[in-house]
Amino acid sequence: MMNFRNILLGFAALMISLSAVAQVENAGGVRRRADREKKNEESGPKISDRMQGFFETKEPHDADLAYMRQIYRQLDLTKDANTPLYFPEDVIDGQENLFRIILRLVVDGKIPAYEYLDGREIFTDQYKVNIADMLERFGIYAQEAKGSTEKNPKFVIEEADVPTGQVLNYYILEKWEFDRRSNQMKTRVEAICPVLNRSGDFGGEAKYPMFWVKFDALRPYLAQQYIFLTDDNNLPQYSLDDYFNMGMYDGEIYKIRNLRNLSMAQMFPDEDDMKPSAGAERQQQRAEGYEPQIYTRVVSRPHCGYPPHIAGGRHLDGYVHWFPQ
Which of 67, 217, 281, 286 is the most buried (most CB within 10 A)? Predict the structure, then answer.
């Protein structure tokens, strides 16, 4: 009987010890799982190839276009319409401003950045920015991240080292295209360039464009960042992707692509000093006014046997005249 009791006590002690070991292992598993989840959260949202493809804009064929113009705008973040791009300055509950998003994606190697060439932007591998050189050029302290290679460098920048308070402007490159198939003028943002505002070598403030990033590459990440537009309504109803696609920003034209690669100030040197944007406004009116010209100059022609009852056309004096619907 005594032996049987000893056996039972030994078996019970063994089970208790095994249970304790299992609890320790489970606790370690929970801790390791939490570490993995935290690491995933810090690395930002995961974007699949399918999701990236959904946001890519298919370039129209030249044969489908009757008109195309590239317009450069400057977004001043002190203007009320543009403040959603600046705030919050610091990361709050996972909410980041536009510059933090762009810089994080660039240094993580998730999206490419291209050299700022002042009006002759070329988005090819030849003009990709060297991230290490760019960070050194603008005095942004960073450390190499785990998994960084010479071919695919990755960096880590502490939140306090991100010069978000110095990015007070953005340059954006817009494309205005008139599509023959839909008879519509379409405007889309092609690229974005953050601009640092720092003290110049000879006093005063100087602007330093950093690099260009393609808007299509940014879109999957901007679509997950929601903002509120005014202080009157703090409900974040629109994403940063909506903000750009719906033209909610207030940008002044500083350049329109031209053969001589001249800025607006160079094209209109004699404009009234009190109206520095008069030339830009005139150029935008020309672009916006191109749509009705299409109907009269391009589409209006002899009907050449086409029936006069075609939708959108009116048969007048042997011509089919097309009018906006």
Answer: 217
